[in-house]
Known about the structure:
- This protein is α+β, with helices and mostly antiparallel strands.
- The protein has a domain at 52-152.
- It has 4 helices and 8 strands.
- Strand 2 (60-69) and strand 3 (72-75) form a beta hairpin.
Amino acid sequence: xxxxxxxxxVLLCINAxxxxxxxxxxPPKAAPTANEAIDPNNKPMPKLGKDEYAIxxxxxxxxxKLKEYEKLDLTTNCFKKNKPNxxxxxxxxxxxAPPKISYSQALNLGAIYCENVGGRNxxxxxxxxxxxxxxxxxxxxxVTSWSMYFKQYPVPTLK
Length: 159
């Protein structure tokens, strides 16, 4: 009797699995390659050049280009007459309190710092799909979150 019940349960599980299995088999989707990253709405990432990043923001991609200034990676829309003049630069120069976080939150201090100083942390992809964190401010200017964090809290050097 025990064997009959066990066999019945096994057959019941197989039948339930078969009922939920897809009727056609399709090959698995390949991982996106460079310039083929897809947003949640299946919009392809735009083609990018050197030092350009595509950031999905407000249901579309925006393309930004970076320029380094005083160890800060700022977006080019921040520059007026070769000098930065934007919120991203001004906020990055002001020292804010270090983020108060628990050990379990310590995965991305740059992103947490960005949120603490009033920015919005966004993730951008370069042409090779390498990701960077960007801190976006109300005026549309951006700075990489890590360069802003390390500007105020540099990595100590070992002697």
